[in-house]
Amino acid sequence: MPEQQNIEYKTSWRDEYLKWICGFANAQGGRIFIGLDDTGAVVGVEDYRKLMDEIPNKTVNHLGLVVDVNLREREQHYYIEIIVPVSTVPIAYHGVYHYRSGSTKQELKGIALQNLLLKKIGKKWEELPVEGATLEDFDRETIDAFLQKARVKERIPADAVTLDTMSLLQKLELATSSGEFSHAALLLFGKSLGRVSITASFKIGRFGKSNHDLLFHDMIETNIFSMADSVLELLKRKYLIRPISYEGLQRLEPLEYPEMALREAICNAIIHRDYASTYTFLRVFDDRLHIWNPGNLPEELKVEALKENHSSYPRNRNIANVFYKAGYIESWGRGINKIVEACVEAGLPEPRMVEEQGGFSIVFYKDAYSLENLRKFNLEERQIKALLFIKEHGQISNKQYQGYFSVSKRTATSDLQILLLKQLIEKVGSTGRGTFYILSKPNGAINTPKGAIKGQNRR
Question: Which InterPro entries match (predicted)?
Fold first, then answer.
C-alpha cells in the first residue's frame, strides 16, 4: 500500500519523526510504520525492543500525546506500527504546529495556524465577535432586502419581517444574547467590509492573453449579501459581451457564459471562502473566465467528488444559512452539478475545478473547440488539426482532408467517421462532391468524452 493521507512509511526511527506524529494528531490521525520502505516493503528494524520503550515516552514528553505502539512481524522481519489518534486540542512540537495534508507534512503559520486553533476549540472565524460593533454598523436596507427574498422563498416565518435588527440577527445566530455581533453578521449586512476585514472585497480584472496583461480592473466592496448581484451586474455591463443570434424572428442575446452558472460560482466563492485570508479574484480573459477564492475544500471532500452526489460542508455555516434562506443557494450540495449542466446545455466545455495556491479555482471556457479541450478526446493529431481547420474555414470535405494531410480516401473517411461518432462534427449532404463536414451545433456542444473509440490511441 503506498503512502497516503493517513499512512507514512519510514525505514528507521529518528526523533524528528515526532513532527509527523504531531501532524497526524492535528489532522485526521494516522499510522506511521517504522521498518517499511516507501513502497510498503519490509526492511525491518534491529533495535525494536529499545524503540518500543522510547517512542511512547518521547511522544508523551515532547507532545503530551499518548499513542499506540505495536510490534509487527512479516517475512521474518520486525517492524513497528505507531497509531496516532486525532487530538481534540492543538499539538505543537518545540513550539511549532505541524499538520498532515495529503501525503505531506506542513508547518502551520499565520492564518492556517489560526484556523487550526479555532477548529480545535470548536469555533470558526465567522463566529468570533467583532469588538466594539454596534447596531449603527448595519445597513437596514440590506437586511430588508434579505427579508423580502426569504419570505418569497418561504424560508422564514411571516412575522420575521417585523423583527428589529437585533432580534433578527439573534434569530440567525449572528448576534449573542448579550449583544455581541459576529464577523458573519458584519460581512453579510454591514455598511463597511473594512470594519471586519480589508481583504473581504471581490476583485475583478480584464486581461489579455496572460495574467501579466491587465487591461483594467474593479473592486466590489459592498457587504457580501449584496456582493453576488453587484459582481454579476458589473460583469454584464463592462466585462462580458452578448453575442446576437436569432431564433426565428426573436433576437437572442445570451451572455458568453451561462448566467446561472456564473451566479452559482460567484455565490460559492463568496460563501465558502476563507475570510481571514486574502481577496477573491475573478479574471476575465479572451477565451476563459477564472474565479479563485482563498480556502481549500473541506477535508471531507475532494475535487473529483464534487460532480457526484455529496453532502454540503460549508466553511461558513451562518453565512451559508443566510444565502440559503434568501434562495441564492440550495442545501443539497448540487451547486457544482448545476454549473456543469448549464455549461453543457449552452454548448460549452465543462469548467475546470482545482485546488491551487491555498484556494479553490473554477475556470469557465468559452471555446469548446480549443486545443486544450480537444485533447481530452483521444484523437489523432491530424483529427485535431482537422477540427481546427473547420473552426477557421467553416467546413472541410473528404477530398480536402486527403490533400491537407496527404492520406488515402479510406483513412480520411475513417477519421471523419470517428469525429462523427464523437459528435464533434456534422455531415452536410449524403454522397458526392457536395458533401462536407461542419462543427457540431450549437458550436461547442462537446464535453468530457464518454470513452475512446475502438482503434484510437490512448493518451
Answer: RecG_C_sf, Schlafen_AlbA_2_dom, Schlafen_AlbA_2_dom_sf, WH-like_DNA-bd_sf, WH_DNA-bd_sf
